[in-house]
Amino acid sequence: MNESQYEMILYWDKTDKIFVVDVPELQGCTAHGNTKKEAIENAENAVQFWIETAREDGLKIPEPKGRLIFA
Fold first, then answer.
1. pLDDT, tens digit, 9 for 90 and up, residues 9-36
2. Which stretches are annotated as coiled coil (predicted)?
């Protein structure tokens, strides 16, 4: 499994004036930053932390599906 294969959704939060990244395949996995680059780097770290924590807790880690399709 490659942690960088999880889909990340990047958006601008007008209220807080930061970039936010959601990783929808990993419940509750989000990150933010003052720049797009910083937000993505923080999200990559958050994915690694999410996976490490799930392993320690004996939880199932979803396989990356790539692009998600919403109807």
1. 999 999 999 999 999 999 999 999 999 9
2. none
